[in-house]
# Entry
Amino acid sequence: MHSTACGVGASATNLASLQTNISINSSAAATAATADAHKMVHHSNDDAMNKIPLKSSNGLDDEEKNGDELIQDTAAAEEARREQMRANLLAWMKKLTIGLICFIGIALISYVIISLCLSDWSKSARITNSTVAKATTPAPAAIVGSSTATAATAFTDDVAEAAPSTPSPPPPTATTTTTIRTTSTTTTTTTTESTPTTTTTPPSNPSTSHTLKPFNSTDEQSLPPASVSDSSNVEATTTTSEEIAVAGPAVAASTSPTTPPPSTAPILDDADAKSKKEFSSKLGVYQHAAVCSDTDACSQIGSNILERNGTAVDATIATMLCNGLLTSQSMGIGGGLIMNIYHRESQQGYQIDAQAVAPYASHQKMFDKDANASIFGPLSIAVPGEVMGYHLAHKRFGKLPWRTLVEPSLKICETGYRMSNHQASKVKMMWSYIKDNLQYQSVFLNEETGEHHQEGALLKPPAKLCNTYKLLAENGPMDFYNGTVAQMLAEDLKELGSIITQDDLDTYTADLRLSVTMPLGNDTLYAVPPVSSGSVVAHILGILEGFNFTRADLADDESYALTIHRITEALKFGFAHRPELGDPRFNDIRELVSQLTNPQYAAQQRAKINDNQVLGSPQDYGALLSSEEDPYGTSSFAVLAPNGDAVAVTSSINNYFGSSLIGPRTGIILNDCMNDFSVKENIFNLPQSQANTIDLHKRPMSSQSPMLLADRDGNIRLAIGAAGGTKIVGGIVEVAARFLWFGEDLKTAEDAPRFYNQLFPNVLEYEDGKFSENVLSLLRKRGHILKPLSQKASSVVCAIGRNATAIYANADGRKQGGVGGF
# Structure
């Protein structure tokens, strides 16, 4: 527009000048000038800025005729065009600025919303999001022995050289973590993208004084080699600056061993320290790994270890060390354990038996005059095996430095923890036995009231026990048996009146064997051989498999009562054989274990079950010997690692607070596992079980039955264990049956009411108030003797289940346990 206007203006000026010249010059010149003027008028539309001057007929151009007037007009037009460009630019920049401000505002709002979602502002939802790091397990070493569907035939001590390891594929890059709090109405789901790191540890040559005792010797099997040398009694440890967060659901561990997580160590305020009147379990849903234990804090420690590329065994040990502080009424380093380990790469199961053993000075008649001496007091203490179990497991299947596994528990010693509902109730139960002990008082006595602390109170573990943990971290686990801790413990035991000596500690060994396997449908069940009751559980599941249960078997009262009847009868057939089992180092039980894990024998037992009536006496179920009920002081754990390895383990000090004695120098709560041996007298008119009598460094029979189930592709489908004495067997069987056959998810299966019959006595116990009167009446009609049972006295199951979409960790609400994972 400016260009055209300027051109027209210039043409008008020229026309005026031409008119003046017409009055002066001749008509011919005027005619020529007029023609030129018309040319300029028409050309102005073609060249808007008129930068090309036109010549007139007399040879003068426009500049000469107009005295630089055209130049001035053209410069003004150029300046106007520049001004317009500046205005356009300013307008564009203004729009861009507004757009950027809007974008930044939206981004900030989104960031605030996401931050709020990821924070721990709601106690009803716990989210763990972190980069996934793959943990690979050292390659196995060849051993002689196998465990087949028909069970075991021999023991052997042969160990071969290590084989090279093959790294497993890394986990997916998308990490989805969902934790469902069953005690709240809030469910939170968070999805983040992360890039996993893969760390492969080269194999090391095994060097160990421990003997491997596989349960049979028909084929060559593989065993992961030692990752820590055992060439000396005191294990060399590596001090590391790594710190693992021990509390706080919003804190995730570093994905690299060289990058420490936040060093803060807040007070452990477990969710299970909150009052819970309803026994509702906790379910965690994860994508790569999971941990189940007695507390949220300890499960989180195990999860942090896995995120730092620790193995399933590393995570298990760290979790159990923590649990020994927070759940000291049930387990600790003064007791023993049975561990079931699954090595995904070789698809092989291994058992570590580190149960407590009878002292060298013990004998079969030591409790004849006073049976209570096997429950309370110094004679009830057996030689502890817990720490030796940690040592053997870490040496064979661990990867992180030993000290790294102890450090989170040392932080608990500094910060303290909140007293759980379960611990408060058991302190109340046992207060008359422990209240006069100064070390128990230092933890559980409320000086203001003169009574024991209540649920939710801030407690700290005994200072002397924390010092023992520190010594174990610095000197290694073998210090417990032949180092500084061993000397202190031997002095404690002598002062307390125990018959355990330094020689008992120095010669204690844990056993490493192959797990017993049995087909269960399309899956493979990995059970732990005696002194565990794993073969009994396997036999019961084998009997029940043939009923081909479905969801319809729980649909109505009649179907439900029939299902309870069948499961109860199967429990009786299993318990009938339990008194015949014992320590395999003292009893030849190979044929019996082979029979119990044989599907054909299970089918024969199943055919004896009458759907309308119970059988008569214990002998009708095949019982030849009597059995006793186990105490309750037990904890169970399950761990599933990102590389597919899994661990199910049960640990115990026997009764709650064991012998009720605590080491004055070490602060260790000492077990009463001598009570697990068979006693002379019984009320069932059956002979005493010779397989479970006291002998030197013999292990007593136990109901502990950590189980692992893998599918046809070798992936863990279920890792499960339980606490609760003899009720462990029924708890595992019922939860597994509901999860595998009745179509229930893991949480529903664990929350369901339970029932028990251990044949000795032949009574059907059921959780009071959880069964309809009609169902109970139908059971009475079949001949069952019924007895109500408090849910607090029931079994406590800890399990991890897996399907194609997710990993599910569920901690039983009967103990208000906790889960962790990512």
